[in-house]
Amino acid sequence: MKRKRAENPAAYAAKRRKITKISDSKCKTKIAVDCSFDDLMSDKDIVKLSKQLQRCYTLNRHMEAPLQLHLTSLRDKTLRRMETFIDGYKNWDVVIKQERLSDIFAPSNVVYLCAESENLLDTFDEEKVYVYWRIC
């Protein structure tokens, strides 16, 4: 049985979603991942952290209005893991800094997020930076 040729082949082509750069994003909410505790983490935890960073980047990249994603204190074990196993991370559309979070953002603008907290955020302030300090 012969397949019928599509009248409009372009209609069946996969639609590629337009990627919005964080600099062009309508969303100005800043999220930071603080990697400064990698000296306290096992090698297994470093592997998990690097995979979670990759996942965060991928999800953010495909959002219609991506968050302003910052990776801070990216050095030592985490940096070595990223350089060895995650090709192209230097090309990610995120802000990557080796400096500590406190050297980049004013302490009055930092909000640490914690899954165990009873406080729920209903809104986000664009002046603040929301920090995941322990992702594993």
Sequence-ordered SSE layout with sheet pairings:
Blueprint: E1 30-34, H1 43-61, E2 68-72, H2 76-85, E3 95-96, H3 101-104, E4 110-113, E5 129-132
Parallel strand pairs: 1-2, 1-5, 2-3, 4-5
Helix pairs in contact: 1-2
Please supply descriptive tags for the structure shown above:
single chain; 136 residues; 5-stranded parallel beta sheet
The arrangement of helices and strands along the chain is: EHEHEHEE
The overall pLDDT average reads 88
Largest sheet: 5 strands, parallel
Say how many strands there are.
Answer: 5
| Low confidence ranges | none
> What percent of the residues sit in helical stretches (DSSP H or I)?
10-25%
Strand order within the widest beta sheet: 3-2-1-5-4
Structural class: alpha/beta
Strand content: 5-15%
Give the terminus-to-terminus CA distance.
54 Å
Rough outline:
globular
Number of helices: 3
What would you report as the Rg, rounded to the nearest angstrom?
Answer: 19 Å
